[in-house]
């Protein structure tokens, strides 16, 4: 695809070459993401971060990514703090905001809303999650992490065996990741969920049509055998018609160290888009896994900044100039404890 000036709305826009391009720019930006180098390549540019649904890591990491390239960030974090609450259409909001910013990241509770918004925008729009539909930047950072973890284990993404566990019906991170992985060869998907929360039929058909093996399981312990990656997700409570219905599924599937040891191959990578639901009634990913070196959840979140920097650099056409605008780190040296 042509990245320059493009909206990033769905993983369906990408082919394998596009993904390689994003990952190679991401690799190149790592020293800037980790504050070993500084660049001002986006100095003067403005990101409008429009989040009409709760978000911690997606919003902050998009903002940090833009700041780390030298740009400024403006944010709205609630519908009631924006003119959408006064009845303004997505069209008008997009037309107005694109006069104020150079790029817009938007999260909204409705499927298709970000695409509708993008149609009226005069600047590139990146989908930060549109209801239960898609979350393309999450899928990219997940795939980037999978590549790192799998490469470290001496393998590649082709022939990957992955178990996706939890609420596969409403989980947009799962939907985007499933589709993105389908670009590779001979993937084996273990789709592990309660019967009522299976992946939408169109995604299931898409994976099978591409020739991948798709196995459906309704039991956690059976579904997590013989895989390279375990991708666990939270019940998307906010998407259910009623709270009572959501309550039925909370805590049904809980991965802990004991279940992992009993059922998984050694060194199976454990991932989660986060947030994990740590309430006693949920705990789909138990804290007793925190010392397990195969738990990649915080490597995922760190990678979120790098991959989002790459998206901005490509869409705003500065990927080749990042180093030209590099500066010596004189005013601040990052200090972090390892881990
Ligand atoms: C995910 C989302 O918002 O879809 N979170 C995220 O962006 N990392 C997953 C979730 O909320 O469960």
Question: Which SSEs are present, and which pair or pack?
Answer:
Blueprint: H1 16-33, E1 38-39, E2 46-51, H2 57-68, E3 72-76, H3 90-97, E4 103-108, H4 113-120, E5 125-130, H5 136-152, E6 161-165, H6 172-181, E7 188-192, H7 201-209, E8 213-217, H8 220-223, E9 229-232, H9 243-249, H10 257-263, E10 269-271, H11 297-315, E11 326-327
Parallel strand pairs: 2-3, 2-4, 4-5, 6-7, 6-9, 7-8, 9-10
Antiparallel strand pairs: 1-11
The protein binds N-carbamoyl-L-aspartate.
Describe the structure.
The strands form three sheets. The protein has a five-stranded parallel sheet. The protein is about 35% helix and about 15% strand. The mean pLDDT is about 95. The chain is an alpha/beta fold and about 350 residues long. The relative contact order is 0.16. β6, α6 (about 170-180) and β7 form a beta-alpha-beta unit. It is globular and about 55 Å long. The two termini are about 35 Å apart. It has two domains: about 10-135 and about 305-330, Rossmann fold (3-Layer(aba) Sandwich); about 135-300, Aspartate/ornithine carbamoyltransferase (Rossmann fold, 3-Layer(aba) Sandwich), CATH 3.40.50. The site of N-carbamoyl-L-aspartate has 12 residues, from α2 and α6.
> If strands are numbered along the chain, what order do they take across the biggest sheet?
8-7-6-9-10
Which range best describes the helical content: under 10%, 10-25%, 25-40%, 40-55%, 55-70% or over 70%? 25-40%
What's the order of the H and E elements? HEEHEHEHEHEHEHEHEHHEHE
CATH architectural grouping of the largest domain? 3-Layer(aba) Sandwich
Please mark out the parts with pLDDT under 50 across 5 or more consecutive residues, or reply none.
none
| Average pLDDT number | 95
Largest sheet: 5 strands, parallel
Work out the number of β strands: 11
Structural domain count: 2
CATH superfamily of the largest domain: Aspartate/ornithine carbamoyltransferase
List of distinct ligands in this structure = N-carbamoyl-L-aspartate
Head-to-tail CA distance between termini: 36 Å
Structural class by helix and strand composition: alpha/beta
CATH topology of the largest domain: Rossmann fold
